[in-house]
Design brief:
Elements (H helix, E strand, L loop, with lengths): L7 H12 L9 E2 L5 E4 L2 E5 L12 H14 L14 H14 L3 E5 L2 H12 L4 E6 L4 H8 L4 E5 L4 H11 L4 E7 L11 H11 L2 E5 L14 H4 L8 E5 L9 E5 L1 H10 L1 H5 L5 H14 L3 H20 L11 E7 L1 H13 L2 E2 L2 E2 L9 E6 L6 H18 L4
Parallel strand pairs: 3-12, 5-6, 5-7, 7-8, 8-9
Antiparallel strand pairs: 1-2, 2-3, 4-10, 9-10, 11-14, 13-14
Helix pairs in contact: 2-11, 3-11, 4-5, 6-7, 12-14
Bound molecules: 4'-deoxy-4'-aminopyridoxal-5'-phosphate (PMP).
The site of 4'-deoxy-4'-aminopyridoxal-5'-phosphate (PMP) has 14 residues, from helix 4.
Pfam family, one: Aminotran_1_2
EC number: 2.3.1.29
Keywords: Acyltransferase, Pyridoxal phosphate, Transferase
Length: 395
């Protein structure tokens, strides 16, 4: 039946986003992920990918995926709890648990659904959840799905966290939730202080290591390993989509945690498991990570070179202490303009604006990888400086 309904109201909202510099048109890239990529017929230096170690192009990972398609076919055929747990899924989870030093690990379809599914099922009305204000959207959404009492602490503010724990006075089971590395600022959570407070007040600790997996800790084992807090963090979430170079997420911890999530986490229960090629590629990547310290050292070396060059030039890189290096610009329209001019100069660094970050904290977020050469990074700095001077961000 014909309908006279129109979507004018959607268009109005899109026009508002456009007026305020918040409208996004995803660039379409040709070729593989890497330090140089093509879009619209132009070759650009890429500073926005999470492919920290260049694993998306690794021949061993690709060969494992191809072999798995031959052995298991293209899809898993079902959700995990019916016929969708193939040998390769099981093997990946054992490998992940061993790598992380936990009893068990459970793989989800993405990092996003890991947080959504794990938080929504772990937090009921008897729980208090206290979350860093800069935690990732998937944590915020996971918490929104629960009936838990919610508290937020100012970014990395341990006094505020302690006050919230004190107010609770042991009445509810408390969960402290934090990113291991913060995705928009590139700073590291004060995990030792969080764990100490958790132990003082009997709380659980939940860490999202999306940007710490493959980056922090020995061979990229994550923030728990980096701070030597093994056995003191109750839920370690990671992604398989960033440094690991494939797609997916996982929650690592006690065996009982895994068995509970299998029964309760809705994205796990009601969505088809990864294709065998994905699981096999992840498995090959985790095996490679075990010998990847030299590559990780190169990543950190690149990051400190790039960050200190930007600071020498007068840019504000916020609290960055990892390969995520934001260059702070300001309001959304100014940030969008900076990013656009940078692209004209041959460098792609995504503008991140409100509501992802505060209205006056727009930034171009640069992500350094191990695959960048020093020349690549020096080129990027030159272009950032040129645009910085042109726009008045630099004096
Ligand atoms: N947590 C954090 C901190 C992230 O930055 C991201 C990626 N944007 C996710 C979770 C979601 O991970 P994925 O892309 O694997 O869904």
């Amino acid at each position: 039946m014909p309908t006279n309904k129109t979507f004018d109201y959607l268009n109005e909202e899109l026009q508002r986003l456009q007026r305020e510099g918040m409208y996004r048109i995803p660039a379409v890239w040709s070729g593989a992920s890497g330090p140089w990529m093509e879009t619209g017929g132009r070759r650009l230096l890429q500073l926005s990918s999470n492919n920290y170690l260049g694993f998306t192009g690794h021949p061993d990972i690709q060969a494992a995926a191809i072999e798995a398609i031959r052995q298991y076919g293209s899809g898993s055929g079902s959700v995990r709890t019916i016929t969708g747990t193939l040998g390769i899924h099981d093997e990946l989870e054992r490998e992940l648990a061993d790598f992380k030093g936990t009893e068990a690990a459970l793989v989800f379809q993405s990092g996003f659904t890991t947080n959504q599914g794990a938080l929504a099922s772990l937090l009921g009305p008897d729980e208090l959840v206290i979350s860093d204000e800069l935690n990732h959207a998937s944590i915020i959404d996971g918490i929104r799905l629960t009936k838990a009492e919610r508290g937020i602490f100012a970014h990395k503010d341990m006094d505020q966290l302690e006050r919230r724990l004190k107010e609770n006075d042991g009445r509810k089971r408390a969960f402290i939730v934090t990113d291991g590395v913060f995705s928009m600022d590139g700073d590291i959570a004060p995990l030792p202080a969080i764990v100490e407070l958790a132990e003082k007040y009997g709380a659980y600790v939940y860490v999202d290591d999306a940007h710490a997996s493959g980056v922090l800790g020995r061979n990229g084992k994550g923030s728990t390993d980096h701070f030597n807090l093994h056995g003191r963090v109750h839920v370690q979430v990671g992604t398989l989509s960033k440094a690991v170079g494939v797609v997916g997420g996982y929650a690592a911890g006690a065996d009982v945690l895994k068995r509970y999530l299998i029964h309760k986490a809705r994205p796990f229960l009601f969505s088809t498991s990864h294709p065998p090629a994905v699981a096999a590629a992840c498995l090959a990547a985790i095996r490679l990570l075990r010998h990847s310290q030299p590559l990780i050292d190169r990543l950190w070396n690149n990051a400190s070179f790039f960050r200190s060059r930007l600071q020498e030039e007068g840019f504000d890189t916020g609290g960055s202490e990892t390969p995520i290096v934001p260059v702070l610009i300001g309001k959304p329209d100014r940030t969008a303009e900076f990013s656009r001019l940078l692209m004209q100069e041959g460098v792609y660094a995504q503008g991140i604006v409100y509501p992802t970050v505060a209205m006056d904290k727009g930034r171009v977020r640069c992500i350094v990888t191990a695959a960048h050469t020093k020349d690549d990074l020096a080129f990027a700095v030159d272009k950032l400086v040129a645009v910085g001077k042109r726009t008045g961000v630099l004096q």
